Amino acid sequence: MKEILKMLEHKEYKKLRQQLEIMKPADIAEILEDLSHKNALFLFRLLPKDLAVEVFSHMSPYDQAKLSELFNVEELQQLVKELNFDDKIDFLEELPAQLVKRILKNAQVQERTLINQFLNYPEYSAGSLMTIEFVDLKKEMTAQEAIEHISKTGFKKETIYTCYVIDAYRKLEGIVSLKNIILAEENEKIENLMERDFISITTTEDQEEIAEIFKKYDLLAIPVVDLENRLVGIITVDDIIDTIEEENTEDFHKMAGLKPSKREYMDSSVLSLTKHRLPWLMILMITATFTGAIIKSFEEVISKVAALAVFIPMLMDNGGNAGSQSSTLVIRSMALGEVAPKDILKVIWKEFRVSLIVGLSLAILNFLRILLFENYPIAISLIVSVTIFITIILAEVIGGTLPILAKILKLDPAIMASPMLSTILDALVLFTYFSISKAILHL
Amino acid sequence: MKEILKMLEHKEYKKLRQQLEIMKPADIAEILEDLSHKNALFLFRLLPKDLAVEVFSHMSPYDQAKLSELFNVEELQQLVKELNFDDKIDFLEELPAQLVKRILKNAQVQERTLINQFLNYPEYSAGSLMTIEFVDLKKEMTAQEAIEHISKTGFKKETIYTCYVIDAYRKLEGIVSLKNIILAEENEKIENLMERDFISITTTEDQEEIAEIFKKYDLLAIPVVDLENRLVGIITVDDIIDTIEEENTEDFHKMAGLKPSKREYMDSSVLSLTKHRLPWLMILMITATFTGAIIKSFEEVISKVAALAVFIPMLMDNGGNAGSQSSTLVIRSMALGEVAPKDILKVIWKEFRVSLIVGLSLAILNFLRILLFENYPIAISLIVSVTIFITIILAEVIGGTLPILAKILKLDPAIMASPMLSTILDALVLFTYFSISKAILHL
């Protein structure tokens, strides 16, 4: 990086170009993202055309958009023409419709129609992830003929390692791996090599489901078909890895009460960051006033024994933390397909048993701590410990159950994480605490 | 699933076997995991040998261990012999050392030595992820000869799509994709097709770093070399997808104050679940007493104006939620390599500006809410709103900074998530709240 900047500064363009040519496209993309607009543009124009296209497809959508704002229309047209089909769609999706029109002005009618069709697939669907650059074979071919066909047409394909056998109407009849073709006798017919029980998806399939299928069956690519079972595209594993990370990011965000964002943190404006945080904070703030109302109804108790207020934060945190542990475990297990709604009773029973041990341990620890290190009456120590015990049982059972209930109600389990759960638990915990206090202290 | 159980019950073994033969190994594995021990063993023994091995390698380590407890030693030896090398290592790793010895008793010395070497690689390292089943080529071969070599030796290889060019001393000289071989002229030398600037890793590389490399360069496989650059194994993309999910699970767990566990939730015993939760809950409970101490030092203030206690939960939750948003965003961005320690000042500046807008919005909303819907003196409404404003600034700036500081100190940023952060923020928030109260109310 420093080297590159130095060469730019000293105008050693020949040396710079040589250096860039031996670098990996992904590394050059990373450097471009860190450079100033002017330098990035200059460096990009210095790249040999093939490399430039590869570098561009490794950049984040945001940086692609930023860089392409500096291009003239001819450059954009050239770039779009050279990009792989799926990268092309990803890029065009980020541009304003007017600009897309101008870029596609000179494209062939057929190409333009196809691109517009792809731009219309819903985000996060198979249609928007797939590419049309796959190898198709006919079942009458021999292994030898198939290899010849692949070597002639394979250059610009997204993958040649899984090939698709289609009939005259483009209906998908089978899938065959290049491995099976290579390992077969030269004269073996593709028909006898292909797998007929293959897994396929339709254009509307959600990306989360697709990722599940890849993980379960260890696939390198999956075919996408339309409602008449005609092959319309394929999705390859490298795009699925990005999808898996996207889905995980979405879960991390939701579980922290954030509106999920696809844009990188450093690329997000202050306003956009604010917009993703404020809604949940407002909702949670308003909801927290219910907890306030509970305390208010016990105001008399507090004014008599102000010491009770001392333990409010610890009790609240305890409930929040225990609930967050249970809900995170269950939410994550559901995301990985390990826990299903049908397991709800098993989860409740498991959480209940865990909470008995955890609750008892914490209650005893707390009782001893207050007894030994603080000088509160034993009644208060008892009240706090009993509340801890009940808190943990409530927190773990509710924390484990709510995400499953959300799933049953077709909501995203991730919203039942810490922020939402804490607010619910706070109210329960404080109500328990003050009720016990009132009873034991006869207030 | 129901069908299978029915056939088992009615002893329709022939029909059952036919049904199983057309199913995907991953689906059969899933069914086996849900069956009782006795039925699972029976079904497994019903499978044709090749399919049985594939099914077994799709099962989770826990279920593999459970099922294999029912096998006799001969069955285990047979199974281990047939498993792919990396699946073999994964399986043996889970078994007690005594049993491994008995299983390997009849293996050849060379094989046994190799297995023991692999069993000694640290968990989560390249050594423990890699397989030895790769295709090696010589640079003098022609494309035609390479394809012949692959078709002869490729059957039991983990992948044939990336091939490794080694010299007489097994030093790795280059990498060539099957695509480039297939697309080349028959007489082209491998030497001219191979990539010399390839990415390789050593056996001690951590799996998190390896996953980063796969994501960045869109690889299907990566070579693993020893310190003398001799090729010792390869890692393929399907194993990396599992690794990515494992790393994400670890982060989810850590961020919820859980000691990470590789075992699935439903497979974990109550005691093991307890052991993973209790340590952090205890630490956090003890730490929360500091917050209690702050309240205690203001006990007089509370006993005079008990109404102040009403707002404690809302203020604490606000701080916790805002801090959790910032820290989650930054932790996730660092995990994805988008934010680095060098960005710390940019992050602080960004969080500060976001927190000004968020804090002001929430403070105003809260001020109006209390003014319009509750009958507290305006002074209290003011105190609470000012505290909210300061809380949000503290929460977002500290929440965004702590994970980066953790990274700089070589700690895992994920521990600076909600539970830890909330405890820190609680103390700051309550101190702020009561100090302001004391000043404004002249207590």
From TrEMBL, chains A, B:
Residues 194-250 form the CBS domain. PROSITE patterns: CBS. The keyword Transmembrane helix applies. Keywords: CBS domain, Cell membrane, Magnesium, Membrane, Metal-binding, Transmembrane, Transmembrane helix, Transport. One of its GO terms (molecular function) is metal ion binding. One of its GO terms (cellular component) is plasma membrane. The chain crosses the membrane at residues 352-372, 378-402, 414-436. It is a multi-pass membrane protein. It is found in: Cell membrane; Membrane. Homodimer. Belongs to the SLC41A transporter family. Acts as a magnesium transporter. This is Magnesium transporter MgtE. It comes from Garciella nitratireducens DSM 15102. The lineage of its organism: Bacteria, Bacillati, Bacillota, Clostridia, Eubacteriales.
